[in-house]
Amino acid sequence: MWRDHLPGPAATACLGIGWLLWLVLLVMAECQGLVTLAGLAIFGALALLVGALASLGAVSERTIVLADAAAGGAMLSAALVFVVPHALIKHAVPGTLGLATGIAIGALLHRATRGAIDQVALTGLTLHTISAGVAIGALYTFLPALGWTAGLAILAHKAPAGYLLARRLREADRSRALVGWPAMATGLGALSIAMMHPTLPISSGLMFGIAAGLFSFVALGFIRNSAGFGQKDKGFWAAAVAGAAVIALAGWALSSGA
């Protein structure tokens, strides 16, 4: 069964409104030619929902840890290959300020996900996801030629995150349908910032820096959280290196025009 009980009427109504807004923003993005960003919003939602659905079956802890490691390696590599250069090389001063700000935001969001098993985890992951969506929306607004690779690598951690959140909700005897909040949050953040970008008084360097800091912090968090298990399993480190190598190779291929 997907759930043990349905969310309350108010929660169900809010979820429905949220998904309706997500769909409206998606259609608007498509109409404005923001195809890549719209596709990433769909991918982010599907990845988290698929991870939550996986919690219904018997998925081993090692599989989730390896997925975490690969996702963390890919995200860290994506930040270093695609985002940091634009933040620090092309916009040194605002980029450095943004990098520090992004790391601070990541630390605050990490603190928000600690504590009670259900509500804090749900709220923290939703806040993190919508913040990441805002950063992704800014990246693709200021740098539309970035392509799919960076966005997919950054969002790769959504599947294991969805799995872990669904498990926590189940353990707390709450409906796993509530994973819909963080699932829609990436698209809400990314597509909203794309629609608002003509009026944003924020420099692209500052936004690149914030995105780089946030993504780097989250990636290191995924690797750190699994490190205790990974010290006893060489497959953990192999997965992290493989995830990073794939993105690094993709970045090299793109830069060389391959």
Descriptive report:
This protein is an all-alpha fold and 258 residues long. It has one domain (9-255). Helix content is 78%, strand content 0%. The protein has helices spanning 9-31, 35-54, 61-88, 92-112, 119-142, 148-154, 158-171, 180-196, 204-225, 227-230, 234-255. Helix 2 packs across helix 7 and helix 3 packs across helix 6 (148-154).
Succession of helices and strands: HHHHHHHHHHH
What is the chains' assembly state? single chain
Specify the overall morphology. globular
Q: What does the average pLDDT come to?
A: 78
- How many beta-strand runs? 0
Structural class: mainly alpha
Which bin fits the share of residues in helices? over 70%
Ranges where pLDDT stays below 50 over 5 or more residues in a row are none
Can I get a quick summary?
With about 260 residues, the chain is mostly helical. It is built from eleven helices and no strands. The chain has one domain.
List the defining traits of the structure above:
258 residues; single chain; mainly alpha; 11 helices
Write the layout of secondary structure elements.
Elements: H1 9-31, H2 35-54, H3 61-88, H4 92-112, H5 119-142, H6 148-154, H7 158-171, H8 180-196, H9 204-225, H10 227-230, H11 234-255
Helix pairs in contact: 1-2, 1-8, 2-7, 2-8, 3-4, 3-6, 3-7, 3-9, 3-11, 4-5, 4-9, 5-7, 5-8, 5-9
